[in-house]
Design brief:
The complex is a heterotrimer.
Chain A lengths: L12 E5 L3 H4 L3 H10 L3 E5 L12 E3 L6 H14 L5 H7 L23 E2 L4 E2 L26 H8 L5 H8 L3 H12 L8 E5 L1 H4 L4 H14 L10 E3 L6 H6 L6 E2 L3 E2 L8 H8 L15 H13 L25 H9 L5 E5 L3 H4 L3 H8 L4 E6 L22 E6 L8 E4 L4 E5 L12 H19 L4 H5 L19 H9 L1 E2 L3 E3 L6 E4 L17 E2 L9 E4 L2 E4 L20 E2 L27 E8 L6 E6 L87 E6 L15 H6 L4 E5 H7 L6 E5 L4 E9 L5 E3 L2 E3 L1 E5 L36 E7 L1
Chain B lengths: L3 E3 L3 H26 L5 H4 L2 H31 L3 H8 L19 H26 L4 H29 L8 H4 L2 E3 H7 L1 H6 L3
Antiparallel strand pairs in B: 1-2
Chain C lengths: L3 E5 L9 H9 L26 E9 L3 E9 L8 H5 L6 E3 L5 E3 L9 H5 L6 E2 L5 E2 L5 H4 L6 H5 L5 E5 H10 L16 E3 L18 H31 L13
Parallel strand pairs in C: 1-9
Antiparallel strand pairs in C: 1-8, 2-3, 4-5, 6-7
The chains are: A alpha/beta, B mainly alpha, C alpha+beta.
Chain lengths: ~850, ~200, ~250
């Protein structure tokens, strides 16, 4: 989230698209409804009329997978009616930047941008660059009239997204489109704030990243980023998903969003060079210029005293990816399916139900020699060998179950969507033989290390040099009990030497050797500091020698009245509750909307540190520099090298502007917007071996005529491993169901409550039909398209009598977003018949 | 001792006692339920037990009521001019000088009483079963409840009179419930038709 | 003690059913095996092991578009409670000082009469034949805690508090009529409906069945009157006319 949960209450228009907070984030509805109480409008765009839609002021139905068309139409509407926030757009975004004249938009190239290579399915991004002046700064046209400026290109790109065209693609009636566009575009005014809430409904598409990019463009046009009640807010699907992503959950990121090294970056210097953006603009903070400090401090946290300047701080011990190597979910299971893995730790997950194309996943598991299932309960993954259609005697995989304890049986922090790290306490002791994850890891680490000691082996150094100071050690050197506070402190980081600010006059001691770091601003690239995750520096700190767990704070002060609650727990970065908040003020530091001031510049008050006049009030600003108009002022988007919000974003695979492409499986033979039906850059699994018949697709195929989408429901958690064992939850939602429209039910002769079979080209499940007026057929171009909906929280193993059905992911495809490889489970094609 | 005549056989005596005792149990518990008389706990132990006793006493009452029909129903239905005479004289209860027409083994009042009792007894039994067993159908339970209570009101009114007439008001009557026999002279005065029919 | 109540606001109910689970958790009610009958709503009705459930009502209208209404169904804690009126077992159903209609399984005799007298079809019977229904978490509210459902509701769609305050706050948010304000001398579960209560499956004019009122007001006192009257009559007769002694009986010769 750019903002935070509570901040939703400050909004005037809340667009929920690609999310269903009432069902998946019920507590967030408290704030949405609070906003409504103030007169805010809730707009819900979803293929289904959900429980969130039930609370909406405006509901617009939209065919799954057509979000970019929908949003592109909104961009066109905003530009055509001059509803954008001109000052913000010119001063704070790259709208005025001039792009290479050779760059061509998708409207010129029939759905492609300049630089596409059909053979590699990749773009050469050479033309997607800005024109630079002699000082090395981007050329700008603040009048936004130059035909090569981002704004004009944007206008051109979306000129095709007329309401007629959008309506034909999305199936949303034209008047509904207008209603949504009108209300959301109304937040382009200074005194209006609009927010967007999304979740998996946007990410789980082959164009997922571009869905979000399209909304970012809208929010930048309307000046909604950085302000209270604005932003683009990802509702994370689990209480600690934000935390796990922050700490390097993804294959390509180390803690704190540092990239995972690849083999071609031979030493630390190369790593830093390759990953440190540069700018010649003195007004740009370019925060990632600190990359070297963060990676070095991270290495110091990993390898402690073994990490020295001489050995590149142990950089060589970090695991590396091959160049261009992708280890995302789909790739891992594809390789597993092709027999390239021996073993697998399924830690806190249930891929046999949660993995897209779960049939392939289940087969892949059978190719393993061993699997360790770390979970609260045995699940469909641990028991895959005795699942439906499996013959246990054919399967050689040895499965171990390590019982993990639940979150209430251990102490530690969780980080929620608001980037808020909250300390939690243990309520009860772990049940039975179950252990906290950290204890299981401690056990593993010690045993792996002992194995190395006894038998030797490759890659010994990364294990032997790892710091593991998490508690008192026994005679064999094993940590007896992991003290989770020590882990939190390691994440926060230490001063390994006295750190002195030499720029200050006289030089000032920033931190004393051995103490906990006060902030990531103090981190060093010379080995004088350690920090397990730079964005969490300040979470567990020390003041006047006293150690303070900032995450355990529980004070309910709220000076701004915006619900920032700065003394409640702690949020990254440096307790900033709304990021990019420098964009909430004008270049002189005055809030665009004084009624909702996130920060404001007080030019008179003395800065307590520098003793000079001029200080920011309110939230923690994005850097202490004075407002942009000041001589020493800085641009608001400090994480970007040029300091500007990116309307033109050359970083993504498919193009600098989002373009509508159909889902890999769609009901249409062609894209009504262009000649390019699907995302030209996504990875398509062709099934390299003769076994992989699983990687099949059926688009515009009369055998699978209906669009399907998957989702969660309030009553179950993810694949339901926790909630299906909970009879109270199961009582409310006992069986796999499929939501279908009354019209489709009539066509197929189905009655409410009938048992039906739902098939895709990859698999088949049964489900109970919920026939409802909450789903309506779409009028797409000149035909009628039916959409159905399937929850994915059921599995064959429990309830034990099989009455729950099996996972709807048996139907979903092996295809992912071109940037993130998140599978496209939100739009695929199926058939439905009475069982 | 003067000559005796048998008015009631052992079956009739036992059945009447069954009816009487079950009735007392039912009435006491019935009042207990109606007015939440917790004093009844002294008698029944608890309200749950009281409900149990009420229900099963009801069953005894019902069976017993059914069996009375063999004894009293045929004669009760035989109403004639003498019965009208009896009614006109109010059964002789309002004047010592009144002379009532000769009566059968039971007199007109007893006949009418029996008919009313049979009807209300049946109603209270049937509705009792209704409350007990058709809990699912709200409407019928409500009707049963109503009928049960109307019958109850009637029964608690007529039974005390019946008891009074069978004891204090007519000395020498109560022994029928004990011995089944009455002095011939007593019978001749009150049940002349029957005595004559018996050949005395 | 002033009367407490729940204020249920379907407009801000999101149908998440946190209340349904919290209720079962606090009251330690068993999970029941159900099946999906073509609806989110489940179990399809109140059962002994379910004191509170969310009804899902789909209202497709041409004018306003699709609507989906959520509302909690449970004991309404009537001021004038039909169940208490008809219950033959003292203490089986009782009013707590806060105004909740609570029950005692020990004292319940399992006659099920309360079912017939309830205007809202709420009481259910467990496998031991004892009454089972929402008791407003009488064990929590007696300790000053809100009922489990109100405690867990994320949006404030179920609120617990002083009955008068709740009515006032509902009126302040534009609900001219609060369902249950006056009915049955005031319900303990108030509903802030903007639509017709009928739309939510609620009785427009809830009332105790007339037969129960007739029974309570007429038949019940009549039984004492009948008994008393009969005894009095016998007494008067005995005093006025005396017993019919055999020697006094004259035969019609």
């Amino acid at each position: 989230m750019t903002n935070n949960w509570i901040d939703i209450k400050n909004s005037d228009v809340i667009l929920v698209m690609g999310a269903n907070p009432a069902e998946n984030h019920p507590v967030s509805m408290k704030w949405i409804l609070k906003a409504k109480e103030r007169g805010a409008k809730l707009v819900v765009v979803d293929p289904r009329f959900t429980r969130t839609a039930a609370k909406a002021d405006i509901y617009a139905a939209m065919r799954s997978g057509t979000d970019i068309a929908f949003l592109g139409g909104m961009i066109k509407y905003i530009i055509d009616h001059h509803l954008f926030f001109k000052e913000y757009v010119v001063d704070y975004t790259n709208a005025a930047f001039l792009v290479n004249p050779e760059f061509q938009c998708a409207d010129e190239l029939n759905g492609l941008f300049s630089g596409y290579d059909a053979k590699t399915r990749k773009y050469d991004k050479k033309t997607w660059a800005f024109q630079m002046d002699e000082k090395g700064l981007p050329k700008k046209d603040p009048s936004l009239k130059d035909p090569h400026c981002v704004f004009q290109l944007l206008k051109r790109q979306y000129s095709r997204y007329t309401r007629d065209k959008v309506s034909q693609i999305t199936g949303t009636p034209k008047n509904k489109l207008l209603e949504v566009y009108k209300i959301f575009a109304s937040t382009g005014r200074k005194d209006r704030a609009g927010t967007e809430l999304y979740a998996m409904g946007w990410t789980q598409h082959t164009i997922g990243t571009q869905n979000i990019k399209a909304m970012s463009i809208i929010q930048l046009l309307l000046g909604n980023i950085g302000i209270a009640g604005g932003g683009i807010n990802a509702l994370r699907g689990e209480s600690n998903v934000q935390g796990s992503t922050d700490h390097g959950l993804l294959f390509n990121s180390l803690p704190g969003y540092l990239p995972v090294a690849n083999a071609s970056w031979v030493d630390l210097k190369t790593y830093i060079d390759k990953n440190t953006p540069k700018t010649k603009d003195p007004k740009s903070v370019n925060w990632w210029s600190n990359r070297g400090k963060y990676i070095t401090s991270y290495l110091k946290a990993l390898y402690g005293n073994s990490a020295t300047k001489e050995n590149d701080f142990g950089y060589s011990w970090l695991p590396k990816l091959d160049e261009g190597m992708n280890c995302s979910w789909l790739m891992l299971f594809d390789q597993m399916f092709n027999g390239q893995f021996e073993g697998f730790f399924a830690w806190g997950q249930n891929p046999a139900c949660s993995g897209s194309n779960a049939g392939k996943v289940r087969k892949a598991l059978s190719k393993l020699k061993w699997m360790v299932n770390v979970n609260l309960f045995d699940n469909e993954t641990g028991s895959f060998w005795r699942g439906p259609g499996e013959n246990p005697s054919d399967i050689q995989t040895e499965v171990f179950l390590l019982p993990a304890c639940s979150s209430i049986e251990k102490e530690g922090s969780i980080t929620n969507s608001s980037r808020l790290a909250q300390w939690r306490y243990k309520a009860i002791d772990p049940v039975g033989e179950s252990m906290p994850d950290a204890e299981i890891m401690n056990e593993l680490y010690f045993r792996v290390k002992s194995l190395y000691r006894r038998k030797g082996g490759m890659f010994r150094d990364p294990i032997f040099n790892l710091t593991w100071d998490y508690g008192e050690k026994d005679t064999k050197g094993k940590v007896k009990k992991v003290d989770i506070h020590n882990v939190a402190k390691e994440i926060n980081g230490y001063y390994l030497e006295d750190v002195i600010d030499n720029k200050a006059n006289p030089p000032k001691l920033l931190g004393k050797k051995g103490e906990l770091c006060a902030t990531f601003v103090h981190l060093q690239d010379n080995g004088a500091t350690s920090c397990g995750n730079w964005i969490f520096s300040q979470s567990y700190t020390q003041k006047d020698g006293k150690i303070i767990n900032m995450m355990a704070r529980r004070k309910k002060t709220d000076a701004t009245g915006l619900g920032l609650f700065p003394e409640w727990a702690w949020c990254w970065p440096v307790n900033r509750r709304i990021i990019y908040n420098r964009a909430s003020v004008d270049p002189l530091g005055r809030p665009w909307d004084p009624q909702r001031a996130v920060i404001k510049w007080n030019a008179v008050k003395l800065d307590p540190n520098t003793k000079k006049p001029g200080v920011w009030e309110g939230d923690v600003p994005d850097g202490p520099a004075p407002p942009m108009a000041d001589e020493k002022g800085k641009y608001p988007f400090i994480m970007r090298a040029d300091g500007m919000g990116a309307i033109f974003g050359p970083g993504l695979a498919e193009g600098p502007f989002p373009e509508h492409y159909e889902a890999l499986e769609c009901p249409l033979p062609a894209n009504l917007m262009s000649g390019q039906r699907i995302n030209p850059t996504m990875k398509i699994f062709h099934g390299k071996t003769k076994d992989s018949v699983e990687d099949v697709f059926a688009s515009c195929d009369i055998r699978f005529p209906y669009v399907a989408t998957t989702y969660r429901i309030s009553e179950h958690w993810q694949t339901g491993v926790l909630t299906r064992h909970q009879s109270w939850q199961l009582e409310m939602a006992p069986q796999q169901f499929v939501e279908i429209s009354e019209e489709l039910a009539r066509t197929k002769g189905l009655k409410n409550g009938d048992k039906v079979s739902v098939t895709s080209i990859r698999g088949k499940i049964w489900a109970v039909a919920i026939v409802t007026s909450r789903l309506r057929p779409f009028k797409i171009a000149n035909s009628v398209v039916h959409q159905i909906g399937l929850p994915w929280c059921f599995g064959w193993q429990f309830p034990a009598d099989g009455s729950g059905g099996d996972s709807s992911n048996l139907l979903t495809p092996t295809i992912g977003d071109a940037n993130t490889m998140i599978p496209e489970t939100k739009a695929f094609m199926v058939n439905i018949e009475k069982a | 001792m003067s000559n005796m005549i048998r008015k009631a056989g052992p079956f009739e005596i036992v059945n009447h006692w069954a009816l009487a005792i079950s009735f007392f149990a039912l009435v006491l518990s019935g009042f207990g339920f109606l007015f939440h008389l917790e004093q009844m706990n002294a008698l029944f132990g608890s309200f749950s037990r009281m409900r149990f006793i009420h229900n099963w006493a009801g069953v005894i009452f019902m069976v017993s009521l059914f069996l009375t029909m063999f004894t009293y129903l045929p004669v009760s239905l035989r109403l004639g001019s003498d019965d009208i005479g009896w009614i006109l004289k109010a059964g002789g209860y309002l004047s010592k000088k009144a002379v009532v027409p000769p009566q059968d083994i039971i007199n007109t009042g007893q006949k009418l009483y029996y008919l009313v009792f049979l009807l209300t007894g049946s109603a209270i039994s049937a509705s009792g079963l209704g409350i007990w067993f058709i809990a699912g159908v709200k409407k019928w339970v409500l009707i049963s409840h109503l009928v049960h209570n109307i019958s109850f009101d009637l029964l608690v009114t007529i039974i005390p009179l019946h008891i009074y007439l069978g004891t204090l008001a007519n000395p020498g009557t109560f022994r029928i419930m004990v011995y089944g026999t009455v002095p011939l002279e007593w019978a001749r005065k009150r049940h002349e038709k029957w005595v004559r029919r018996m050949g005395y | 003690m002033t009367r407490k109540a729940l204020l249920i606001s379907p407009e801000i109910c999101i149908g998440c059913r946190g209340c349904q689970t919290a209720c079962k958790e606090w009251n330690q009610l068993d999970g029941v095996k159900t099946s999906n009958a073509g609806s989110f709503e489940n179990p399809p009705d109140l059962i002994p092991a379910l004191y509170n459930r969310i009804r899902y009502v789909e209202v497709p209208t041409e004018a306003e578009g699709q609507r989906w209404l959520f509302v909690s169904q449970r004991c309404m804690h009537c001021g004038d409670a039909g169940c208490m009126k008809i219950c033959p077992a003292p203490g089986a159903l009782y009013k707590t000082p806060e105004g909740a209609v609570a029950f005692s399984k020990e004292k319940c005799i399992g006659c099920k009469l309360c079912v017939t007298a309830c205007p809202f079809d709420v009481p259910r019977y467990d496998k031991d034949g004892k009454i089972s229904k929402c008791h407003l978490c009488s064990d929590r509210i007696s300790q000053g805690l809100p009922p489990a459902c109100a405690k867990v509701c994320p949006t404030g769609a179920i609120r617990y508090g002083e009955r008068d305050d709740l009515i006032a706050s509902a009126k302040k948010t534009g609900h001219e009529k609060v369902y249950g304000e006056m009915d049955l001398t005031g319900l303990g579960a108030l509903y802030a409906f903007k639509d017709a209560p009928r739309l939510y499956g609620m009785n427009e004019n809830p009332a105790i069945p007339e037969s129960v009122i007739f029974w309570n007001n007429i038949l019940k006192p009549l039984s004492y009157l009948g008994l008393g009257g009969a005894v009095a009559l016998a007494l008067i007769h005995y005093v006025a006319f005396g017993p019919k002694k055999n020697e006094e009986v004259t035969r019609d010769e």
